[in-house]
Design a protein that fits this description.
Low-confidence stretches: none
Order of helices and strands: EEEEE
Number of helices: 0
Helix content: under 10%
Structural class: mainly beta
Distance between the termini: 24 Å
Strand content: 35-45%
Number of domains: 1
Strand order of the largest sheet: 3-4-5
Length: 58
């Protein structure tokens, strides 16, 4: 996580991609079947919410 965003990079640090916003201090997790990533986000009003991103594996 960097600057409030969950991201992924290759092992050498290249090809970085932002996956979703995420609140620092909370863990992100991959679903058991590997299709979703879950992370805590924060709304404009300050409420915490669990969000899910669907991974497209090709």
């Amino acid at each position: 996580m960097y600057d409030g965003r969950l991201s992924i990079r290759e092992f050498d640090g290249t090809n970085g991609n932002v996956i979703m916003p995420a609140v620092q201090g909370f863990d992100a997790t991959l679903s058991q079947n590997g299709r979703y990533i879950y992370a805590m986000t924060q709304s404009e009003t300050g409420a915490y919410q669990l969000e899910r991103v669907t991974l497209l594996l090709q």
